[in-house]
Design brief:
Largest sheet: 5 strands, mixed
Number of strands: 44
Number of helices: 3
Strand order of the largest sheet: 2-38-39-40-41
Helix content: under 10%
Structural class: mainly beta
Length: about 625
């Protein structure tokens, strides 16, 4: 089985993942292992849209992919502004302010992952548009040349998406991920308030007309009879599409509450799944559920990657889904049928009050998972010694019986952690060879169910007058269920990880055979300002981009560096220090004959408490 190039070279970086196939593949021929060491910083911009949370504003989490289209570089910011920059110099062409409410309405931080771009092919005002969403559920469309609102979209350029939030509306439809644009259709998913409630808005995908904002269809993912007792199973991440097949591929998340499922005992087949939706009607063409009855928040985290493969002399349109669990599912994107074996295996039962878990879960051993499911990482002797045996004691205290050990009052190890494994950054693929490249976090968390009668007292005793929760850590109520939760990384009191490194890896896979070609530690961990060893690696957030010249460009690590890797080996060829962790996917494009790579550098407190507002561009020499 061999890969074929099914997607034409992209002259622009026009979507969150570079193209609708989510390949993150750039035809940047000068970015080769031999030349990349000459990469130079061309310019940088500070947007001013940043907060560390110490003042009146919540902290910011900025993970925007820059969009290069129309000869301009477009970015969304966590203050929900659009910036249009000159690709050569970074000079501002124009800016647009949504004047959105800067409050953490659904998320613990002000978040933005960028903008979307649409053009009609005609000439005139608003025939090219930039779209940005806000946490308070509005979608704005502005002219790509001037930044002026497009009056025919919604009401004077603003679409109130929350008008379709009609059921269990305990929070707004937060538009933090840019929508996906296919032809003249804008496909909108939304984010909610994680781990807060049992009954929440039911997850759906909205399709609107790119010119007017008129609703074309609305597809839900929860059976109607279960909507009164649960919610979410929404799409908070990016999507991919195959216009020739007329399908959009959506990563569906888990239902509510995330860590207890006694309210939703009947099957929800579309939850925690990859679903193929017909773009013209909203009909579900097929779906593949990779977690049954999810009580681990193992959402489908990223857009499926599309690549054509050759099998038995036939071209197979394939889809590749990386997951928080570390499985890599390879499916026929026409039907959802697995191209490698997927086996249902027994998993541990739950001992939580009123809980129910599926007796089996789907496992895929080919391609080799990015997480070792055979055993949880061993206790790290250094951390155990410095904690006077705390790590060893924890290992005996908390429950772990393999992947899919259910949440418990005793406390359960989550391996991998609720953020993965692999997260929204996804993978990159070479459509010429079928080789996939992906970064992985190797992190262990502990999740503890707290009986409702004890929850408030435990939170008060632990936090006093301080906040109960942080960015995917701390206490969360799951109101309406028998349990609140406490979630934390398995660390010593000094902050050292209790598990053996590596903490992050980078790997390459041959999708023809499922073989892992290599796996190497990636990035540098940091604690108290000191770097860890290279062999330890770093947890990551963000994704890689592959160039046609054989170089992988990636930020993602906690050590404030952006890097170029040799795609053949995973070894570092070049790096530069930036203002914070670059928790984003870079844009790679050719402008006026020069190849560029541009990162939004914003930071994320999941990695470390450093935020920034930096846009930084690199090129090979003077154009």
């Amino acid at each position: 089985m061999a890969a074929t190039a099914s997607h034409a070279d992209q002259p622009v970086w026009g979507t969150f993942n570079g193209d609708l196939a989510a390949t993150k593949f750039a035809d940047a021929t000068t970015f080769t292992p031999e030349k990349i060491t000459g990469l130079e910083r061309a310019w940088q911009v500070r947007t001013g849209d940043v907060s560390d949370g110490s003042g009146e504003l919540p902290e910011t989490v900025w993970s925007a992919t820059p969009i290069y289209a129309n000869g301009i570089l477009y970015l969304g910011t966590p203050f929900y502004r659009i910036l249009a920059l000159d690709p050569d110099t970074g000079a501002e062409r124009w800016s647009y302010n949504t004047n959105s409410t800067l409050e953490a309405l659904t998320q613990p931080a002000l978040k933005n992952r960028g903008v979307a771009y649409w053009e009609s092919g005609a000439e005139g005002p608003c025939e090219k548009r930039v779209l940005v969403g806000t946490m308070d559920a509005t979608l704005h469309a502005v002219d790509a040349d001037t930044g002026a609102p497009c009056a025919d979209f919604g009401e004077n350029g603003v679409l109130n998406v929350n008008k379709w939030n009609e059921t269990n509306a305990v929070f707004p439809f937060s538009l933090l991920q840019p929508p996906t644009v296919v032809g003249d259709t804008i496909l909108i998913g939304w984010s909610g308030k994680d781990w807060a409630y049992t009954i929440e808005p039911p997850g759906n995908l909205l399709a609107v007309d790119a010119r007017t904002g008129e609703l074309l269809w609305d597809t839900g993912f929860i059976p109607p009879e279960l909507i009164p007792v649960t919610g979410t199973a929404n799409i908070w991440s990016s999507m991919s599409a195959d216009p020739e097949l007329g399908l959009v591929y959506v990563p569906v998340s888990s239902p509510s509450p995330n860590y207890w499922g006694g309210n939703r005992r009947d099957p929800i087949p579309l939850a925690t799944s990859i679903a193929a939706i017909r773009i013209d009607t909203g009909e579900v063409a097929w779906s593949f559920q990779h977690v049954h009855h999810d009580v681990w928040d193992y959402d489908t985290p990223s857009a499926p990657t599309l690549v054509d493969l050759q099998r038995d002399g036939q071209t197979v349109p394939a889809l590749v889904q990386t997951t928080k669990q570390g499985f890599i599912f390879v499916l026929d994107r026409r039907t959802g049928a697995p191209l490698f074996p997927v086996e249902e295996r027994e998993v541990p039962p739950s001992d939580a009050v009123g809980a129910q878990v599926s007796p089996t879960q789907p496992f895929a051993d080919i391609p080799t998972p990015t997480i070792n499911h055979a055993a949880m990482p061993e206790v790290w002797p250094l951390a155990d010694m410095l904690s006077f045996g705390q790590c060893s004691q924890d290992r005996e205290t908390y429950r772990y019986e393999g992947l899919y050990t259910p949440p418990s009052e005793q406390g359960t190890f989550l391996w991998p952690a609720t953020a993965g494994g692999n997260n929204w950054g996804g993978a990159t693929v070479d459509p010429r060879t079928g080789i996939l490249y992906v970064n992985t976090s190797q992190v262990v968390q502990v999740l503890r169910l707290i009986p409702r009668a004890n929850y408030e007292a435990e939170v008060e005793a632990a936090t006093g007058d301080g906040p109960a929760s942080a960015n995917e850590a701390g206490f969360y109520p799951q109101e309406g269920s028998p349990y609140g939760i406490e979630l934390f990384e398995w660390r010593t009191s000094l902050g050292l990880p209790c598990w053996k490194p590596p903490y992050g890896t980078f790997a390459a896979y041959d999708l023809n055979t499922g073989e892992r070609l290599y796996e190497v530690p990636f990035g540098l961990a940091q604690q108290w300002g000191f770097y860890g060893l290279r062999s330890w690696g770093s947890p990551t957030l963000g994704g890689p981009v592959l160039t046609s010249g054989g170089v992988v460009l990636i930020g993602a690590s906690m050590d404030d560096r952006v890097r170029a890797l040799d795609a053949a080996t995973g070894q570092e060829l070049w790096s530069d220090i930036v203002a914070a962790p670059a928790v984003s996917i870079p844009a790679v494009f050719t402008h006026e004959g020069a190849d560029y790579v541009v990162w939004a550098v914003g930071g994320n407190s999941i990695l470390k408490k450093r935020v920034a507002d930096q846009v930084v561009a690199y090129r090979l020499g003077t154009p």
